[in-house]
Amino acid sequence: MATSVWKGFLTFGLISIPIRLSTAARSERISFNQLHSVCHTRIKMPTFCPTCDRMVDRSEIEKGYEYEKGQYLLFTPQELEEIEPDSARSMEILEFVKLAEIDPLYFDSSYYVAPDEGGAKPYNLLLDAMNTSGYAGIAKLTMHGRENIVIIRPRKNGLTLHTMFYSNEIRSADEFGGGDRSDVKDAERKLATQLIQTLAAKFEPEKYRDAYQEELEKLIEAKAHGQKLAVVPHKVLAPAVDLMAALKKSIEQKPASGKTLLKSVPEPSRKRKAG
After folding, report:
1. pTM score
2. Is the Cβ–Cβ distance between 109 and 163 less than 8 Å?
């Protein structure tokens, strides 16, 4: 059973469902350690107090908020626990919305929602009702020292919860836009749409791989055996000067299947993490 990161109740109306959350996804990547260049010993980050001039044990650490330069307000775990809202123990679904209305920009972390002891029947009732109606639930959840707005959505095998960014955390898109679009010609738009259609495919996330991580694995394996990898030259890219010509050439060079330009990458024979 996956480790639970939160346990409590999911409520809608007068129905309470005991649930537990577990992380739905985590980043997988090769990590490097920092070594001392003189002796190649791994560098450690000690918890050190400059006033007492000594190492500090975790049991001696407390939380403080700096309200003025060098001046701190101290807080005990009990004080912080006393101000926890109800959402630290239960999630009340505040409203139901259509999933298509939510901009994916708001999505943060994902968790699987599983029923806890005695919660299977109401859990499945809610799951079936949400799948039938096409709605997702909006609730609040306090976890890891923060009250999150979350969306609970139905999937084939159960409920999934996503923490959301608050609206004030989303940066304005004005400065990132493409500016005036009136100079886009109809013929260019038509060819761009045609090119999109030639690259259209069913979403199959398992066929996408991290090419950089795979090259790192090869590099680590080669170094471990005293070998050197051949350098692969990179393409030299530049903005298209003639959009119409570039679009036509792109469509002409579409893959034989007419579906995707994705290059198949063989599964690495061996995975290995540094450090």
Report:
1. 0.69
2. yes
